[in-house]
Amino acid sequence: MKLTRRALLKSVSAVTAALVLPIPSIPRAAACLSDDGSGPADVCEPGGLVARPSGDPSFQAWWVKTFLATKTWPTPDETMEAVDTIPEGRHFRVEGPQRGYRLPVWDPRMGEHVYIGAEAVGRVDPPFWSAFADDGRWIDVNLTPVQHLKAMQGDEAIFRDLVTAGLQGTTRPGFYRILRRVQNETMDSRTIPGLQDNYHLTGVLYTQYFTGDGAAIHYNWWGPPYGFGYPGSHGCLGMRLPGSKYMWDWATIGTPVVIHN
After folding, report:
1. d(Cα 161, Cα 259) in Å, to the nearest integer?
2. What are the pLDDT digits (tens) for 120-179?
3. H or E, element range at 206
4. Which CATH class is domain 5-25+134-260?
5. How far apart are CA 228 and CA 248, in angstroms?
6. Kind of pairing, strands 216-219 and 237-239?
7. Are the beta carbons of 206 and 248 closer than 8 angstroms?
């Protein structure tokens, strides 16, 4: 059965609780380790965040969307140095009671806790990705040619690139998470039970596995038979070098992967 993006997005909220619960929050430093415990130092450094403004643990967070262009601020009363300029249509999660004219919010695009003017936002239902993207970060993969993935920060695509997915539907639509990462991998067909093709590939860089049976996002240096953007793998999402490096630096263990047609 063909799974469309609309059908997947309707179903993911219903199933995500069961999918998310078994996967604990993993420190970013652990995500840069390869099988031998090594990893690039620049991936391991945690990013700095604006201090969380809310102090009431009993407060029930809720979501808003901007309906006017506005700004975010580091404090409830700062007027000179804005954190960011915000267009219409962006989601924020309200993290505490209103203070003066501003609401303390979490900005999923920046991963920061900031303040925003209450006059510029209106309450909305939670965006579908908020059910599984705890830090606002998730990967959107479209299997319909031209096949591509997008690195999503909340509702904004901050990076996109072509991929080559599995021939004959071997890259299955669904909801996944990155399970483990290997910076420099050797892929051998003998490790995959029942596979008819024979291959032994060394120097497969930036491999990020999202299924237990070996499907991964990785650099494809040997080139897909029909070009990037079209099926040509055994189930992995092969990428060109710059794109695979970007995804390695940006993603981490536990990052959600949503695959659809």
Report:
1. 14
2. 999 999 999 999 999 999 999 999 999 999 999 999 999 999 999 999 999 999 999 999
3. strand 200-209
4. mainly beta
5. 19
6. parallel
7. yes
Q: Under DSSP, is residue 142 helix (H, G, I), strand (E, B) or coil?
A: strand
Helix (H/G/I), strand (E/B), else coil: 56: coil
Which segments of 21-151 does DSSP mark as H helices, in order? 28-31, 41-44
* 57 φ/ψ sector (left φ>0, alpha ψ -120 to 50, else beta): alpha
Q: Which CATH fold topology does 62-129 show?
A: SH3 type barrels. (2.30.30)
Q: Return d(Cα 15, Cα 10) in angstroms, integer.
A: 10
CB atoms within 10 A of CB 203: 11
pLDDT at 253 over 80: yes
Domain ranges of the chain: 5-25+134-260, 62-129
Cα first-last separation, the chain: 11
Q: How far is CA 172 from the centre of its chain?
A: 18
- Asked if 202 contacts 135 with a C-beta cutoff of 8 angstroms, the reply is no
Question: Looking at 51-55, 85-89, 106-110, 236-240, which range is the least confident one?
Answer: 51-55
Tokens of residue 241, six digits: 């070098």
